[in-house]
């Protein structure tokens, strides 16, 4: 080949390679659903709706759809599933569910965060079902219903096509209240744990204080019950150099400030709006909060809290290194996991739960409400199979559906032993190298946040199977939730005004409270700080919350 | 008579122009073809989305879409100007940028001048390679390094302790934030930034240096009177462009390095927009602030360009 044509060939090859490299950047398109979408409308339709809310008599037997139909379901993928599969379609219980109901689900799992949700709403390409914490959307669920993104569900529709869910809701009226809008409109399906016999909803404690009990014994003290006793224990940790290395962090706090915010409950307050004697107050300007800040300031100045807490990312590492003695955190990823890991390093260690601590004013409150805006499933306006969707969702709240989604496939992932669904070795001690979480995830929904009626017998086998784990529940049930705000909803207009006021106030509070605790701002300036917040219209914000609370309490 | 002649010349010129364009197209059609993707990129991704700015004047709800959302005029802007943080955000943004320009802009120039003096080819190349490397490290990694070094038991504190000082977490100190921010920026950018100045220096006629040497100018005098004026056009253009992005303090780096204790010096307009826009879903508000930001940038750009044109005849346009 001549030099010139050789150059041409090389140039062509290089440009093809570059082009191919550029194409590899494109992500693969969405897998097209391989089921047939029904064109007939021969499925059970709701027909004419009669007013009066009386449930109609319809045939509720399986399969739900005469011809196979496809529903698009937008739902976050839980990390336990993410580890071993790409969509929920691979979970055994959903495969079985499709067989039983003749409804194929096209799972859409968002990879990004909230932006993806907003994009989806704005794009007019709505799926059929959405699972999302709707309280987090701009304008809340009210805006979404107002703008015809989600549809409201009438009592008649619900009692006819979702009898299981409604039956459980009616047995738990306090819970039913949390799911509806102020005017009583129902639109979403929440998830919960329930006792199948009584159909009562049960909550488990997932957050609380825990401490190195071996260190407590080493410094000659007993488990602290009050804040002042805790102070003595923490001081002893530090003064007696309990880990022998000179770098003891008695109370470890990370840059999310979770632990230090949680302990405010022992003073009867929290870093945001809460109830006090039937009225709504803003925590950071109350006297109880001032007392709490004074205590934390003292603890910080004596070195009982790690000095770099606003920037510390990996506080868990401090526990695993035997530097930290006490903190307030969650059960799964916190206490349980850290306890196991510590035991491997140091068999003498004893990371154990504590009951909620009683503060100087006698308060003992649980103030975390990361569950305030629960994830729930709602039906969109683009859904053409509303009754089938309702039945499909409702099936998972029925006794059979609950067993299927909680435990998986009978004979494979669980066996009925004397009428008690027992998880088999295949999931508990998986031989293929999956850890327990991942093995469970392959067969069923198990413990994750998913709209079904989660049978508590699952928890009993996985999360309550040791004395220590049972103790966590008893210890952490000691926190009262009387100062927490219930999940109120504000109207679209109210929530705009509220967030306009609160956003700057929140920034100011976060800065100033840290400064007070870390000693950079003298406590004499406390009153000036409260004044400034009042000037920023906090009273208007409190009034809005009061209104919303009144409406919540009168829901039925 | 003269009118007719002028007219004739004009039409001749126009014909020539059309013909010239045609010729140019035919001759260089592949270069134009190469240019089309770039043109499309700018039109599709930069120009067309400009219409989205209209949400700055609306009360935008994603569920209503852009056209369905209510028009509120200048409300969002008013809210921003009346915010108690407006003054602070403006001050932090401007100060951080100005410090970066005062300390960060001359650094590559000086570095280039120094490099130019090196005689040993291999040493010069070695220095260049080493100093270019930090530029390629991503912001996230740089910030991890900084976070680590500034820890109480980190590298910088080790040095402080050696010199007899007291250990403390440097990123919790508001008065150190700007120093850390600007200094790390200089460290990262001085090598790479000097490339363009070095190339400008090499384009200066060496005869000028010889003539100056013969006239008895010292090394230092040669630098001041030949090199610096020689790279002035480049310096001016780059300075104008720098000023034009005065209000664009990079979001990433500030976001990774700041925390509530340093908000008072570190919170800049872009981090505020992030918190309001993405964390609190206040899309209209944050768009309005962004628009305000860009408007200031344009004004600064025009002012800087005009001043530069008047003062030393170098300008972008």
Give structural notes.
The complex is a heterodimer of chains A (about 550) and B (about 325). By secondary structure, chain A is α/β, with parallel strands linked by helices. Helices cover about 40% and strands about 10% of the residues of chain A. Chain A has helices at about 5-25, 80, 90-100, 115-120, 140-145, 155-160, 165-170, 175-180, 215-220, 225-240, 260, 285-300, 315-320, 330-345, 385-395, 400-405, 425-430, 435-445, 455-460, 465-475, 490-515, 525-535, 540-555, and strands at about 70-75, 105-110, 130, 190, 190-195, 200, 205-210, 250, 275, 280, 325-330, 350-355, 375-380, 415, 420-425, 455. Chain A is globular. In chain A, about 35% of the residues are buried. Chain B has 2 domains: about 1-70, no CATH class; about 85-310, MetI-like fold, CATH 1.10.3720. Chain B has a two-stranded antiparallel ribbon with strand order 1-2. Classes of the chains: A alpha/beta (about 550), B mainly alpha (about 325). At the A-B interface, helix 4, helix 5 and helix 21 of A face helix 15 of B.
Helix content of chain B: over 70%
What is the name of the CATH class of the largest domain in chain B? Mainly Alpha
Return Rg of chain B in Å: 26 Å
**What's the CATH superfamily of the largest domain in chain B, by name?**
MetI-like
- Number-wise, the strands of chain A total 16
Residue-averaged pLDDT of chain A, rounded?
Answer: 85
Topology:
The complex is a heterodimer of chains A (556) and B (317).
Chain A: H1 3-24, E1 69-74, H2 79-82, H3 92-101, E2 103-108, H4 114-122, E3 129-132, H5 140-146, H6 155-161, H7 163-171, H8 173-179, E4 188-190, E5 192-195, E6 200-202, E7 207-212, H9 213-218, H10 227-239, E8 249-251, H11 258-262, E9 273-276, E10 279-282, H12 287-301, H13 315-320, E11 324-330, H14 331-345, E12 351-353, E13 376-379, H15 386-395, H16 399-407, E14 414-417, E15 420-423, H17 425-428, H18 436-443, E16 453-455, H19 456-462, H20 467-476, H21 492-517, H22 526-535, H23 538-553
Parallel strand pairs in A: 1-2, 1-3, 5-16, 8-11
Antiparallel strand pairs in A: 3-13, 4-13, 5-6, 7-11, 7-12, 9-10, 14-15
Helix pairs in contact in A: 3-16, 6-7, 21-23
Chain B: H1 2-27, H2 29-47, E1 58-59, H3 65-68, E2 70-71, H4 75-82, H5 86-104, H6 106-117, H7 121-136, H8 139-149, H9 155-162, H10 174-202, H11 206-214, H12 219-244, H13 251-257, H14 263-266, H15 269-279, H16 283-312
Antiparallel strand pairs in B: 1-2
